Amino acid sequence: MKTTPIGRLQAAWIGLATQWLDYTRDAAERSVLFMDVMRKRGNDYMEHATEGKPALLKFANEVLVDGHLITARLMHEHAD
User: Fold this and answer.
1) What parts of the chain have a pLDDT lower than 70?
2) What distance in Å separates the CA atoms of residue 74 and residue 72, rounded to the nearest whole number?
3) Could you say which DSSP state residue 17 is in?
4) How far apart are CA 58 and CA 26, in angstroms?
5) What pLDDT does 59 receive?
6) Which pTM was predicted?
């Protein structure tokens, strides 16, 4: 069976439209899932904050080097 150039063109456009619809559906589903994860994360944070619990990554620290005392040229000496 022979296919005409118009038939091949129509098939190509149908294939392209199908791929585009698949892509947009996937993007929409991923967006919904991402927003759901962000909502749950926000709810967990608000619950944690209202219970008065401390920050999870709070720890004692000390300053080893003050970056204000380093000259700008020193930052680029390793690149030369």
Assistant:
1) 1-2, 71-80
2) 5
3) H
4) 39
5) 76
6) 0.55
